[in-house]
């Protein structure tokens, strides 16, 4: 809770409270398992109409798995679609050990992705990122996730803002490790990159980790200010909460 959720806020109310300040959230729990139908419906019921969820594809269904189960992939997509208009992109997160010697695996994976969903893939090895990957993702209409983190060069990620591979973009600010630093300069650089992205795609989805600057909601609000969006401050949320 601390500096974001008011004291006494129940865990069940975290999502509805969060959705008053931000328009989207990245769900980490789906990386570990496909959510139950009642869970997904509960998410949708606790947020306003224009809110969206970015769901992580379960790790067992990503190209890292030895033999992803087609039936389980179909089940996951079925559950995701229960969100209706509140479903944002699906993130396929690959670990730093997943190297560019597995081009065939990635190509086959992209070819069998179900249609009708927004797919985004995050790579964490430098050898992946280049014209070959951009062309492959573009052919399938899949977004390359732009990452601010310790795995890939910031300048290269920012340069890719002018070469989106889908009609939407996905950005993740993960930070460089355990040490928390002042990252105002990085935020300013990314704000310019977001402007370039916004001119080329219909929607830009962006998510902060606490590791980026120590407090993800504060980083998100600062980015909102930099791109000309008026953030909802914690004091405003607490004032709204007191009305209930």
Overall strand count: 8
Full CATH superfamily name: Protein of unknown function UPF0759
Order of helices and strands: HEHEHEHEHEEHEHEHHH
**What's the rounded overall pLDDT mean?**
91
Main beta sheet strand tally, sense and closure: 5 strands, parallel
Question: Alpha-carbon distance between the termini?
Answer: 18 Å
CATH class: Alpha Beta
CATH topology: TIM Barrel
State the domain count.
1
Tags for this entry?
globular, five-stranded parallel β-sheet, three-stranded parallel β-sheet, TIM Barrel, 10 helices, alpha/beta, 244 residues
Written overview of the protein:
The radius of gyration is 18 Å and the shape is globular. It has a five-stranded parallel sheet with strand order 1-2-3-4-5, with helices on one face. It has a three-stranded parallel sheet with strand order 6-7-8. The chain has 244 residues and is an alpha/beta fold. The chain has one domain: TIM Barrel (Alpha-Beta Barrel). It contains ten helices and eight strands.
Question: Could you write a compact summary of the structure shown?
Answer:
The chain has 244 residues and is of the alpha/beta class.
What topology does this entry show?
Blueprint: H1 14-18, E1 24-27, H2 37-45, E2 52-56, H3 70-81, E3 87-93, H4 103-111, E4 119-122, H5 131-140, E5 143-144, E6 146-149, H6 154-159, E7 168-175, H7 184-198, E8 203-208, H8 210-213, H9 216-226, H10 234-241
Parallel strand pairs: 1-2, 2-3, 3-4, 4-5, 6-7, 7-8
């Amino acid at each position: 809770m601390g500096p974001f959720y008011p004291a006494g806020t129940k865990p069940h109310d975290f999502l509805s409270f969060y959705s008053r300040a931000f328009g989207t959230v990245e769900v980490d729990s789906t990386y570990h398992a496909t959510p139950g139908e009642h869970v997904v419906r509960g998410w949708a019921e606790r947020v306003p109409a224009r809110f969206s969820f970015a769901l992580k594809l379960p790790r067992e269904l990503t190209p890292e798995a030895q033999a992803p189960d087609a039936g389980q992939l179909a089940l996951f997509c079925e559950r995701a679609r229960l969100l209706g208009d509140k479903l944002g992109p699906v993130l396929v997160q690959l670990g730093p050990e997943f190297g560019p010697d597995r081009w065939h695996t990635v190509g086959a994976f992209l070819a069998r992705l179900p249609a009708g969903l927004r797919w985004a893939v995050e790579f964490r090895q430098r050898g992946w990122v280049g014209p070959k990957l951009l062309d492959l993702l573009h052919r399938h209409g899949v977004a390359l996730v732009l990452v601010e983190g310790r795995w890939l060069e910031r300048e290269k990620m920012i340069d890719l803002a002018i070469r989106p591979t889908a009609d939407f973009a996905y950005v993740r600010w993960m930070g460089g490790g355990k040490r928390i630093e002042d990252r105002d300069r990085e935020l300013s650089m990314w704000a310019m990159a977001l402007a370039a992205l916004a001119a080329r795609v219909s929607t830009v989805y962006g998510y902060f980790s606490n590791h980026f600057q120590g407090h993800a909601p504060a980083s998100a609000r600062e980015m909102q200010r930099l791109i000309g969006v008026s953030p909802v401050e914690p004091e405003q949320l607490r004032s709204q909460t007191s009305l209930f």
